[in-house]
Amino acid sequence: MALSLCGIALSKIIAIELITDHQTLEHKGDMQSLDYSVGIVFHLEDTREISFEIKTWFSEMITVEKGYNLIEKFASTDGFIEEWEGCKGYKANCSRDIVTLK
Questions:
Q1: How large is the greatest C-alpha to C-alpha distance in the chain, in angstroms?
Q2: Which end of the chain is more exposed for a tag (fewer CB within 10 A), N or C?
Q3: Which domain holds residue 87?
Q4: In the 8-state DSSP scheme, what is residue 47?
Q5: Burial class of 101 by CB neighbour count within 10 A (0 to 12, 13 to 18, 19+)
Q6: Calpha distance 68→73 (Å, rounded)
Q7: With contact defined as beta carbons under 8 Å apart, do 72 and 41 qualify?
Q8: pTM (2 d.p.)
Q9: C-alpha distances in angstroms, 101 versus 16, 33, 62, 97?
């Protein structure tokens, strides 16, 4: 009997990507930072992928996708910066790290 996840027969997971966002917010010289796991992408032997993404750090909703180049479907880091653009005196930044395990 073949194992499956999300309807995809899994012969072998060949790599796992761990995605982490690093957000900083500065106001009047005070800097706050938050690092949180955004999601995980499983790369399968047949080139397909399965991803699990949390679009906001406080959310309990997880988006599950299957397909190809799924990291491109993840929410952009620009969204955090854009949310703070109209707030006078605040400077926001967000960067993303992707660690690949093979």
A1: 61
A2: N
A3: 4-101
A4: S
A5: exposed
A6: 10
A7: no
A8: 0.81
A9: 5, 26, 21, 13
Please indicate whether residue 9 or residue 37 has the higher confidence score (pLDDT). 37
The amino acid present at 56, given as its one-letter code, is T
3-state secondary structure 4-45: EECCEECCCEEEEEEEEEEEEEEECCEEEEEEEEEEEEEEEC
Residues across the chain: 102
pLDDT by residue (tens digit) across 31-81? 999 999 999 999 999 899 999 999 887 888 999 999 999 999 999 999 889
| Nearest by Cα to 51 from 14, 17, 3 | 17
Return the structure tokens found at 96: 């993303």
Split into its structural domains, the chain has a count of 1
Alpha helix stretches (DSSP H) within 35-90: 78-84
